[in-house]
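To: structure desk
From: M.T.
Subject: fold request, one chain
Message: Could you run this one when you get a chance? Sequence is below, nothing fancy, just the single chain.
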Amino acid sequence: MTARLQRARPGSPELQALVDELAERLGRSVAVDDPLVRMVCTSRHFGDEDPVRIGTLLQGRADNATIRYVLDQGVTQWSRAGFIDGRDDLGLLPRYVVPLRERGHLLGLLVVVVPGKTLAEHETRAIGLAADAMAAQMYGEQIATDTRKADERDLVLDLVGTDVAARTTARRRGRERGLLGAAEHVLVTVVQLSCATELGRQSEAGMWGALEGFRQTRSAQGLVAIGKERATLLQLRDRPPGPDEVASQSARIHDELRTFLGPSADPVIGVGGRHPGLDDAWTSYEQALVAARAARRLPGLRGVGDWELLGELAVLLQLPEHALNASLVPKPLRSLGEAHGGDRLRDTLRCFLEHAGSIPRTADALGIHRTSLYYRLRQIQEITGLDLDDGAHRLSLHLGLRVGELIAPGDGPVV
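Reply: Done. Structure tokens follow.
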């Protein structure tokens, strides 16, 4: 069973002291959240606690609905402090929020519970001074964190790269640093955001936040790399994960991404094959890229592609992007799509081929009489000019149907 997703890394004693000092001065509950609205430090209560605050203290982070509500207020883009309204349905009182920035980078959010949405001048002045001190403290801590993340990223990218010598060196380096344990079963998962999404600090933070909870679980030891185009999670396990475990992990990562980044990021997840040794991490990675491509092209996958469930689509998806278009659909199949009743005949053909040409099973699946099925198959043969008893003809039609499933709306007509 995979452990729960982790909350943000707890703040340092120095940051906690600044939070406590401000709270005592104001007589109000104060917290510092990371850019994903996950609690880093919090003060004691001052009688102004609400269900969200209590739940956050008990669970280690607010629920996803609350996080998404706060992010939807645009707080990560604010250039100055401001109030966010409360939400009775979420159990949230109004908050005064100050973006904590240093050299243009958002480091976190200073949050003060203010039920009346009114602060005296001396209070806002004290909050402003405390925010400056907190931002300076967090910036120093962030430099060290970024260095560790960069080292981890470089290690992962070497482990999944095509350079054999670099992979060998990376394995030795990872074990020397204690980042790679004795487990050998490897699984690589990749995350890709929409091409329309500019990869900025918030996108990087969102991908890291979605994946970091799976770096150390009861069943896996992992490493994360956030790159220019994608995020990569490499996990080592004592045994191969079961399909339910992989599906559950992927679903939770996808849910976290949508919480932290919103639907416009349109994230997709690709899961590579399960392999018995770290030497095959690069293979799992390449397979994960293909699975992510499937998730982008096949809406029915709901944003998550798994290499081991792709079947023959895994082969087609390795065609170059520019080549995967309507020109690959055989002419006989295009003729079928243009004929009267073409949709019905195409669905009949697909069902017939997926049931290995079995008349009884195809008729049962379609819910029609065998006589009707024979009639439709004769129509298909007449329109396409192909023989459904010929293995090569059937293969051509089946591959054409599969290509049609992968063609994006802008790639030409889909049959």
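Reply (cont.): Strands lie at 30-33, 39-42, 82-84, 95-102, 105-113, 185-192, 221-226, 230-237, 268-271, 304-306. Let me know if you need anything else for the meeting.
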